[in-house]
Structures are given as C-alpha cells and as structure tokens.
Write a structure and sequence with these properties.
With 633 residues, the chain is α+β, with helices and mostly antiparallel strands. Helix content is 58%, strand content 12%. It is elongated and about 110 Å long.
Length: 633
Amino acid sequence: MQKNVLLRFAAGFFIQLLFYYLSFTTGHMVLLFLGAILTAASLGLLPGFLVALSASLFGFAAGNVRFFMLPIDFIVVFATVYGARHGRFVTFPRALAYGLGVGFLTGLAGWGLGTVLAFPLSTPFLPVSVLPAWVSAEQGQACISAVCHAVDLAADFAIVTALVRCAPAFFLQPMNCDGRGADGVRRVPIRWKILVYMSVATFFAGGVLFFLVRGVYRQQMIDTYGAVARNFVESASLVVNERELPIILAPGGGETPEYRELFARIRAFYQRSDNIIRYLNVYTVGEKDGRGYAMTICDPSWTGYKYGRTFWMDEDPYYDDIGAQMLDEKDNRLIGPVISKGYWGWLITIYKPLYDPDGKKVAFVGVDLDMSQAMREIRALDAKILSMEFIIFALLLAIIYTFITHQVIDPVKKLQGMLLYFREHREKQPGVVIASGDEFEELYKDITDSQDIILGDSAQLQDYLNVIQRMALRDELTGVQNHTAYENKISELTAVITAGTAEFGILMADMNGLKFVNDVYGHEKGDLALQGMSKVLCDIFEHSPVYRIGGDEFVVILTGRDYMNREALLAKLKPYERVRDRTADEPWIEVAMATGLALYDPLADRSYTDTFNRADEAMYENKRCIKAAAGEA
C-alpha cells in the first residue's frame, strides 16, 4: 500500500512537471493541472497540493514567476477532492460541467491575482481581437483567461472520468461517495469543515499581511525615488535662466543663441547625471480652443522631440492627473511624483514650474527616473514573500490535516467501531487503544524560521532604502543638507508654529565673489570656495542644521543651544562678513559672505516665510553695507 502511494505521488509529480513545462514553452494552457488533479483524486487533498507545490518550486527555481499562482492550484486540488467524494466524476457531462464552472472561476481569479501583482501570465490561445467591440481589452483578457482555464480543467476532469471507468483500481480514494450517511441524509464531514474554515482564514490573513507589507516597502521605494527625482528637478531648474525664457518662448525662439545656450546647459546637466535621469525635458503649456496643450522646448534625452512639438493633453492619459495642475496659473507647487507605465516603461516623474522675470509661470522642467529596476526588485520581493507565505500555508494545512485525522477522526471511527461491535456482540471490542500526538512545536519552528527569513529580507531592504534616503537628503558637493531636506524642515517648523511652541532663528548666508572665482579660476575652484564656506558654517553652528538652498545660498536653522548662544556665534561669524580679496594668490581659499539673521516672532510672523523674508532682507542689507565699506558698487 505504501509503495502504491509513493508511485502515484511520483507519477503525479512528473506528469505535473511535464505539462507545466509544455504549458509555458508553448504559451498556452496544456493540461496544466493534470498531475496535481490525478494525485488529489487518487490520494487526497494533501498529496495533490504537495504535487502542485513541488512542481511550482521547481519552476520557481528555474526562474518562472508562476509560483504566485499556488492559491489557484490549491482551489483546483480542493475542487478535485470535493468532486471525487461527491460523485462529480461518475459521468462525462457532470465532469465537463463541473470542470467548466470551476475552471472559469479560477481563471478569473488567476487573472485578477496576476493583474494586481503585475505578473505576466501565459499567452492565451484566443486573441482579444475576436471579442466584440464593446468589450475592453482588460475585460477581454479576463474572459480569455477564464475560458482557457475552463477548457483546461474540463479536459483534466474528463481524463479523470475516463480513468474511473477504464482503470478504477488506479484510485485509492473512493470516487462515488456522495457524502450521505447511513440514514440517507447528506452530511459534510467535520474534517472538511475545519479545512475549509482554516483555508479561508489562512488565505485571508496571508493576503492581508502580504498587501500590508507590500504596501509599506512599495511606498518606501516610491518615496525614495521621488526624493531623488525632486532633488534633480530642483537642480535642473537652476540651470534655466529666467531672463532667457521670454526670448526662447517668443516666435522663432528655437533659433536664438539663448535657446542654443539653454539646450547646451540642459544637455550637460543630463549627461552629468550618470544615467540616473532617464528623460529630462523643458515644456511650456497653454490652452487653445478650450483644450490644453503642451509644447516641447528642450529635450536632450534623445527621444526625438524637437523644439515646437505640440500635442493635446486630453489625447494622452499621462496628463489626466497632472494636466489641470499644469494649466492652473495660481498653482506653483511641484507636480509629482507621478508613477506611470507606458511606451517608455516604468517612470517616476516630477515637474517644477519655471517663471519669467515678472513672476509668471511660463514653462516646466521635468525629470523622469527609470523605475524598471525598482519594479523588478519589488516583483522579486513579492514572489519571495508569497513563496514563504504559501510554504508556511502548506505546512500549516498538513499539520492540521494530520492532527484532525489522527487526533479526532481516527478516535471517532474507533469509538464508532467499538459501539458497533458492542451492539453486535454485547461486549467490549478487544485490543482497541486511542492515542494522540503533538506536532505543533515543529510547526512553530518552521513558522519562526520562515519569519526570520522574511524579516531579514525586509531589514536588508529597509537598510538599503535608508541609505538611499540619506543620500537623497545630502548636497553632493558640500556635504550639508540639500533643498529637499530643507523643505522637510520647513514642514516640521510649520507644525511647531501651528502648535504655538516655535522658538527658532533663521540665518541666511550668501557667498561674496563666487562669480569672480568661477569666471577667473574655473568652477573647480568655485566648488572649493563653496566647500570652505559650508565648513565654516558647520563648525560655528555645530548644533544646528545647515542647508544649501541655491548655488551659493545657505540657510542655518538656529534652535536649542545655538539659538540661546546666537550672539556669541554671530561674533565668531563676523570676521567672514567681507568682500573677497581679488588680489590674493588663491582667492578661493578665503571665506567671504554676507549674512542676515531673523528670529521667529509669534506676534509678527504668521508663517515660516515671514521669518525667512526678514532674514533674507537682513542678508541683502548686510551685503550692501559690506560692498559699500569696501568701495564696491
């Protein structure tokens, strides 16, 4: 008996593996479930599911992503065992109808699961074009998937029915039991009730856990890429000279020297990004005849879009979410990050408005980062988490099945046998022993080991994301915090101001003579000058964050100890408030700046911007005084 069980299990496994391979090499359903169905019909639920699990593990090791379809496999195996015990395979019409119904529902479920998780499914043998015009492509694919599964499962069940007739000895489990008791009343065995309840509960809990965890690391990945894109778009916007925009946007602006210079600067910025930026574009938008349009100004990304290329926003779904914000003249916020997937692949996009000298929003600079690798990593992690969850699920069901059989069903059957023997012989049945075992400790070890694997992978991913996030918040040149971190600090201070507990100061610092150093000695020496200035600010205000918010503009947010000792710290800063000595041998070594300090006043300042504006005005007044004292205009 034991040998027959092993032979049937091995035969089912190799049949499943064979047709599994044929299905995915041909791209169509080819009796995909046959091995698991034959095993389940002959040996029961657990062996059938283990065949499906083992074949999927081999496919997963070979690089096939279908492992996420294990829930569908389990439903098919469960339906097979249920049909075998309730007489569904007695006649061909009943088997075909049962297979078509179960197959259609599992096909819809498989298509839905693959769509939600963005996994590619096998190519159906029916093209969408054969469907009516009123059926959308998405609905068509769902219907085709359901039809393919229905035909495949009907064929599988027809083979089982043929074997029942031709070789009934093949099946070790009874095939014609309709679930009725001795009194003719149909009953559902308690083992099936418990298995169904536990299966539903486990699927629900596992699905909720998966989507919760998936939502967390997916959002963290998007936030990290969004911060990087925001940093790039802020830097790219500094390349555009607002005084040149009216000339470039005027008729014939694409032929002007200003445009050629802008294109050269944008292309240089794009090339310096080391392929981190996928696409970099400058657009202008407007409305004509009540329709919004966008026009390409500058595109160094080699997409083939030239100056003046115009297209309607309402004809491109990409602009459904961002078009209204682009056309709103009063909306000056950054647009994005926007995640999209289309002809160009997976992209995360951020747009920043550009203004003319009059402060009017006239154009946008857009940065697209390639999210393809990130989405592949997310899908790989999805597959790994799903794999672990369903391995745990299979082990849990095996233990429950074994526990119920040996600890509940077998003792009940023995008790029933004892009662029957007693009724027939009016004496105790000799040699009957009822005993039960405990295997929950083994399950606990398997679950905790699997959790350690998942937590370890999650911790590694979190460390990776933290490193990227820290890199995204630092200015690459000076090492101080960048504009993105500065925006985060503004949000933090705004919350404190709203709560009425704000106490801080804003120090604006602007370098003197950076243009002279760049023009005479080159940008490399200018970078050294910026690094020297940032070091001085960090050394003096060692307990306060320093931000680089522009080319040569820095902001220090004074709080705590530095706020209390600001007079002494400003005294240390005083020697650096000067013009740059242009006659020095190495003028870039000298730190020369203008500064301005403003303290938050809850009676006068309604927001952070009010305090910032006062600091900015103080800095410009300080710069004017420094130049006047030095005899400069």
